[in-house]
Amino acid sequence: MTSLSWRHALLALAVVAVWGTNFAVIKSALAHLPPFTFATLRFLFAFLPAAFFLKRPQVPWRNLAAYGVLIGVGQFGVLYFAMDGQISPGLASLVVQSQVFFTIGLAIWLKGEKLSLRQGLALVLAAAGLGVILQHVDAVTTSLGLALVLVAALSWALGNMVQRATPEAPSLAFVVWASLFSVPPLLVLALVFEGAPAMVSAVSTMTPVVWAELLYQSFGNTLFGYAAWGWLLARHPAAVVSPWALLVPVFGLTASALALGEPLPPWKLAAAALVIGGLALNTLPGLRLQRDRTGAVG
After folding, report:
1. Whole-model pTM above 0.70?
2. What is the mean pLDDT of residues 133-143?
């Protein structure tokens, strides 16, 4: 298969739209909730009450645990910590998309998938867009923030590979039950870095808006987003699915500008154009690909 069908493309677009606008939601919620407390609650509500309605997928517990720790702690725990004063939401939405390159690299290394010249050029073009933004960091973005978001991106890519190892598992049930393993380490981090009094105070004073932001994280971003993304990755090569995530910063920058007033100067628009150009080049019809040893195309 050389590209996504239009139905699968619409699903991918819906996922990246949720993920992109999510960065403005995260920033807003972090004004009230400490980062690790926020992440703990997010994955607690991703697990409950859905676990009562979805049977645990018949995959090894170690797969669920690995995915839960990588996505819950490695990606979002670290990302929330970085966005709590270390990096702007729009820029975070862009830097975390380095997961595309990590995911494709891991798929080539571990799964034997092949990268065509055209796909390689598309990734170079998109990488140029990432480079433009990285050259325009400002006072609200620190080197620690950039490093933390890169760690989050690598964790996301590793989580992708863990989920792809069990393509027969129902994606939604996989994400729900993996969230069980996200909560304990996040809770420990919250207790160590934020303290029980701060956690109790933050939760007890949550407004309806903050509750809505939290539930958007749990149900929209985690359950819908990661279940749908995993479903797509189980049916298509990483080099076909992952570049769609390059649209996340487009939604992220736009939502941050509209909702939070984050500046959107010409250089950010130019970077977004490069990212979209890379995605378009990768997904144009007629792309000829080679089959890997599993029979998938990549």
Report:
1. yes
2. 72
